[in-house]
Amino acid sequence: MKRNPQSGVTLVEILVAVSLLSLLSVGMLVAMRLGFSTMDKVDARMVSNRRVVNSRAIIENEIAGFISTMADYVPQPNQVVQIPFLQTERGIMRFVTEYSLEDGWRGRPQIAVLQVIPGEHSGVRLILNETPYTGRAQAGLNIAGLEQDELTGRRIVHYMEVPAGSKSFVLADRLAFCRFSYLQPLPQAPFQIWRSDWILPNILPQGVRIEMAPLDAAPADLHVTTVTAPFSVTRTPGGNYAD
Question: pLDDT tens for residues 214-234?
Answer without folding.
Answer: 887 666 666 778 899 988 765
